[in-house]
Amino acid sequence: MRLMIPGVAAVLGLVGMVGAAGAVEPKSPITFERRVEPILTRAGCNSGACHGKGGGQNGFALSLQGFDPTFDHIAITRDVGGRRILRSAPDESLLLQKASAAVPHGGGRRLDPDGAFYKTVRQWIVDGLPRDPADAPKLVKVGVEPAERALKPEEAFELRVVATFSDGSTEDVTALSTFGSTESTLVAVDADGRVKAGKLTGEATISARYEGLFTNCDVFIPLAEAVPESEYAAFPRANFIDELALAKWRKLGLTPSGPAGDATFLRRAHLDVIGRPPTPEEARAFLDDSSPDKRARLVDALLRRPEYADHWATKWMDLLRPNPYRVGIKAVFNLDGWIREAFRKNLPYDEFVREIVTAQGSSFEQGPATIFRDHREPIEIAPVVGQLFLGIRLDCAKCHHHPFESWTQDQFYEFAAFFTHVGRKGTGLSPPISGSEEIVFTAKSGALKHPLTGAPLEPKPLFGEAPVSDDPDVDPREALARWMTAPENRYFAKVMANRVWGDLMGVGIVDPVDDIRATNPPSNGPLLEALADDFRDHDYDVKHLIRTITASNVYALSSEPNERNVADLRNFSRHYRQRLRAETLADAVGDATGVPDSFDAAPPGTRAVATWTNRTPSLFLDTFGRPDPNQDPPCERVDDTAVVQALHLMNAPEVNRKLSSDEGRVAALAAGDATPAAIVEELFLTAYSRRPAAEEAEIAEAVFRQPGKSRRAAVEDVLWALLNSPEFVFKD
Amino acid sequence: MVPPRNCQSSTTRRDCLKLGLGALMGGGLVDALRLRGMAASPAKGRFGGARPTNCILIWMDGGPSHYETFDPKPEAPAEVRGEFQAIETAIPGVRFSEQMKNLAAIADKLSIIRSVRHNQGNHGAGNHYMITGAPPRIPVGCGAFVSFHPSMGSVAAHERPAPDGLPGYFSMPSMTRSGGPNFLGAKYAPFVVGGDPNSDGFRVRDVAPPGGLEIERVDDRRALRARLDHFKRFADKTAGDPASALDEYYRQGYELMDSPEAQRAFDVSREDPRVRDAYGRNAFGQRCLLARRLVEAGVPFITLNEGGWDHHVGIFDGFKNRMPRFDASVAALIQDLDQRGLLESTLVVVLGEFGRTPKINKDAGRDHWANAMSILMAGGGAPRGQVVGATDVYGYAASERVLGPENFVSTVYSKLGIDPATALVAPSGRLTFLVSDPNPIRELM
Questions:
Q1: pTM of this structure
Q2: Most exposed among A250, A332, B99, B412, judged by the fewest C-beta atoms under 10 Å?
Q3: What is the ipTM of this complex?
Q4: Are residues A481 and A493 in the same domain?
Q5: SS3 A38
Q6: Which residues contact A260 (CB under 8 A, 6 or more apart)?
């Protein structure tokens, strides 16, 4: 995960005091919002670790990062009987005494008494603590110069941050800004905006924050020695993905790995598109096919396979499917079925989302209604919708201004207000059974009050317009869904395009895939934009998106790094290996051994990918990281490896039983009359989707000649060895 | 592939595997293990010549209240004081909450630190700071599992390899939020032992070959696996090849399977039933017992991750439900270690992310409060029966001998024989100090 939060140094108290260096000499008059609040932010006074945390510090509370100037003005000028300010002797004001550590201050010295900031605050006290006039120009934009820069190792430069106000005026606010780097070991930035490259090559985004607005500067430290243009020119372009990925490689001086071989592509595409490796017969047919378009035809065929739906639906189960102990078995089963059906009929993604967001009806009949049975309050469902479908994380804004984004608490509540007319009748939750039916409908009334002011809030989108109908029978969610899925909503297509890209390529262009914000920039912005546009222009057809990505030469690169791209973990100049997901791996073991799992309360032949709840007992799935059944969606899943996974594949009685079963592939191969060579080829095709190399075949065939080893034991041991290899466990 | 390392002769290894299958013999085991354990952790002499100890860290996930544990404030107004009385302890003049009866009775074996404070008020960040000694370098949400720095357990495993194929760092029944290895790599991740050791037939899962498989077959399969695996590995660490991590896990898995010490240590059913009773016949109690067995086998670091201390609601009922058993098990562990002569070489630590707010909230709970917390440390050669530092009169903040998480973590490292001023080199080439302030709490040294 890569997060970047400017002002980190201030939060951690590393900035130390803020002095005169580089400070801007204020133009009069000195007013609170324009001149004083930024100083409090820059000095870290209102950071989350100090007075900005809920309840403040030592009885002095400020709004987090100064998002509420009225609150802060009162806190400074009027609370505790106004004793923080002494106009007759400004230097004796507690505000300045504490900030300059003239009296003991837990936060140490934040303002240098000889510095410009101190003088500004002092002058503001002398002037009578004025606030900005109501018609004062408002901050509209913050920009940084330069916005992009290539550096040599250990080279440095200074950033300049410029604020633009509603009257068109601009001001250099560098001294009042806070800075952060996405990769501080590669490119560091100090408190004054001086950027310095480290010794290593790579890239980082430097973010500057001024008064709640962010701006970024992309910094590259390309590899030494230029790559001859002919090398890039030689890279074949199948579609726009290749062009845009290449443009980024050129900037960094990366060169792509070679193309993946047919067998690797075959296994990769199978696992990616349908979550299932090819059978030995399918593998033979593909490998022996010499037609030039066989890869495209393979993907098309896979997209038509029934396994496609379960594989892609199960990714959404992590995000949407609740705990049946909480909302009831039937309701969960019903939602599970609806999601699978949506992928089965390739429901356009905008319709998929619209049906969820505007869900109505019985939790026993209308799958998406279950989501509203699970998330019952507007302030519970709003952040889920924001994260999953817009990539906007709103949780922080529930309680306070989002610390690393520009979303305010007001915006959060106005967004949540779209869900105030969700009515429910029937029987609500009664865990741990919750077995009853509940019906979601449009209530005629419903309101959400601001948690601080108590004022009722009108539904309002996070940006743009989403007019709500006056007709009380029309649910405000209709307006929300229209706004979300409108072609001009830049977030909607992006987050899904990025999600699918992350699934196929191993890491999102934005990572985590549903956390899109200025401070978590994409590794390749133009690529994400183009991918999102293409997805939107093709009517949000998920299969089209998959086809487009898999058709690119970028998708078909080998995972083997070269000298110039070995450190690339974000720019897709090589394919990134992924461990198979828990369900995919469990099913692959079942397919390879010919002995499928059998799951409780599921029909025979149910594959792991088709289980309807994570409560279905399976040590295998737990060991390989399916979400904890007690976790509420959306769940994050870690496809990491661990020693317990190695031990499980080696030793688990369940896995061993599949190898030694009389019903399985091993028994059948041993009982047949195939030669050891044919059996070994079959096992390699089964586990790795390729034929063995001569040396491998010889090693495996020798097992059959081992004294005292039965033919059956030989097949078992070879398959055991193949399954306990990273070539089986990973998608290459 | 890496050959099995510890059981050099195949006879020995076969014995191990048989042991793994359950052919275990009784008698003299504990003594034998203890001798091995001691032999396996010789003083490395890197830090002050102190004899290194092993550590059992009991993590009270959620952040236990300091008022309801080791720092009651009977003089405070009712809305701060809470429902519980303060009781006398075995240290004259020192009082604990009435919920800590068993620990109060053995307070003369303990050191209580009342004055560690920090500035991270949510779970993810608080856990990170206390478990790694480093504040998270970016703000971290409450639910977050983050890692910016290796955890104490991972560093212990890195600096103090455990004997006989045992992992150097265990975590039961799960890893704490930031308990991972960070840049030290997969090799130093905790070995997580899930399940309930109090249940009949509890076994550490998958650490022995499946029943019915002859030893010859196990050998054959391993050898074959090593020869057949031609999957390309990308040796350059910056490539982040996950296949290399899996190799390391297979190596660890083999070692564990081949270690009779490990197999025995895992078998808590071999304990005298009276000892099992004393620890408490519940999952946590038996995990404490398993932890003692692992210490005896020479494991340097064991974390017991015990959730349920995030008492925003109903703190008094919560403590009445939970604390009597918890208190009894921890006290039994410390006494048992002491009686076996192991307490001097075993550091027992009990803590959570932070303390709780002074004022009881509207739901009869207390919220997060990093300005004050209490930490129990026992053994490891620390002076017995002392209280270090103090909070102010109502427990709002650490006020005397104010210490940071860095001092706490440095103390644990020092006790483990690891110099807290050690700098490790991260793969990026960056020099990383274990702890930014390497001063241990001198009262404990």
A1: 0.78
A2: A250
A3: 0.86
A4: no
A5: helix
A6: A268, A556, A557, A558, A559, A575, A732
